[in-house]
Amino acid sequence: MSNYVITGANSEIGRALAQFLLAKNHEVLLVSRSAKSVADSTVKWIDGVDLTKECDLLRLREYIRKCFSTPFTLIHSVGDFWAHKSVTNTSFDEVVSQIQSHYVTLFGVVKAVVPIMQAVGGGRIIAFSCNSVRYNYPDMAAFTSSKAAVECLIKCVANEQSKYNITANAFALPSIKTNNVLETKPEAFHKNYPTLSELSETVEQTIENLSPLVNGNVISLFKYSDSFYHKGYYERNIIWEANQDERVGGLL
Ligand SMILES: NC(=O)c1ccc[n+]([C@@H]2O[C@H](COP(=O)([O-])OP(=O)(O)OC[C@H]3O[C@@H](n4cnc5c(N)ncnc54)[C@H](OP(=O)(O)O)[C@@H]3O)[C@@H](O)[C@H]2O)c1
């Protein structure tokens, strides 16, 4: 049994992971900005935590300090969803929200947990990135560049904190079968996306078997997809523009 903190506990992936880890009898602390979404009072949950606000991060740090006196794993499942659109159709507010929700939140949580991890003898930090960082697709600039910053931060933290027995790695995810993805991607491709339970099982197994020598990596998760391997980007995606009327249909 291991100790876990999940930030973004009300995200689709965070919720699925939480259920899976609790079912495996791990000790889990859930953290969300929005209200706690389970009635079970035995589930440890701190809500109302905006991970871009220093006062909330300090409150979170004290809460975690009281919960765990031995090493724990942080899984950061936070960041706003992105519907494809070009740079010219991305508003300034949207790009600020992307960099804040993906990168600034991770920096804040790392700052909050690292002193506790150092004090309890170590820990693991896991962030979710996306395989778009490897491919630099068009129409995803605000999201992909924010995730690139996430990956870079993870590598910097790994180098800086390894002397304290703290590791940091990122999982680069493909599209996962979340509601947001199902609503915005062509139905024909849905069968290609890993399910939330496949992802939860893979994440848990990988973390539980992760040697402390595995540090500063971006671990890609994907499965075979005929369209992914045999079609170019523009053949298998739909380009989403700011105005739904401008949406350019077609198989990317
Ligand atoms: N879904 C996919 O296919 C996919 C693919 C690649 C990578 N990922 C990554 O996996 C992670 C989870 O994805 P998801 O689809 O499950 O996400 P989601 O359902 O869209 O949820 C995003 C979460 O981010 C939280 N959040 C945003 N800004 C925050 C802030 N300032 N402070 C605290 N929480 C904040 C929201 O919290 P509240 O609800 O509490 O407000 C929300 O629960 C994200 O990093 C995402 O980029 C997902």
Keywords:
globular; alpha/beta; Rossmann fold; single chain; 7 strands; disordered C terminus; binds NADP nicotinamide-adenine-dinucleotide phosphate; 7-stranded parallel β-sheet; 252 residues
Q: Quick one: how many beta strands? A: 7
Relative helix content: 40-55%
Q: Count helical runs.
A: 9
Give Rg in angstroms. Answer: 18 Å
Enter the CATH topology name: Rossmann fold
| The CATH superfamily title | NAD(P)-binding Rossmann-like Domain
Based on Cα principal axes, name the global outline.
Answer: globular
| Main sheet attributes: strand count, strand direction, barrel closure | 7 strands, parallel
Total separate domains: 1
Mean pLDDT: 92
Please write the CATH class name. Alpha Beta
Structural class: alpha/beta
State the end-to-end CA separation.
Answer: 44 Å
CATH 2nd-level architecture: 3-Layer(aba) Sandwich
Low-pLDDT sequence parts: 241-252
Please list the strands of the largest sheet in the order they lie side by side: 3-2-1-4-5-6-7
**Percentage of residues in strands:** 5-15%
Q: Which series of helices and strands comes N to C?
A: EHEEHEHEHHEHHEHH
Q: Which molecules are bound in this entry?
A: NADP nicotinamide-adenine-dinucleotide phosphate
Give a nutshell description of this structure.
This protein is an alpha/beta fold. Helices cover 43% and strands 15% of the residues.
3D architecture notes:
This protein is α/β, with parallel strands linked by helices and 252 residues long. The chain has one domain: NAD(P)-binding Rossmann-like Domain (Rossmann fold). Helix content is 43%, strand content 15%. A seven-stranded parallel sheet has the order 3-2-1-4-5-6-7, with helices on both faces. It is globular, with a radius of gyration of 18 Å. The C terminus is likely disordered. Bound molecules: NADP nicotinamide-adenine-dinucleotide phosphate. NADP nicotinamide-adenine-dinucleotide phosphate (NAP) binds next to helix 1, helix 3, strand 5 and helix 6.
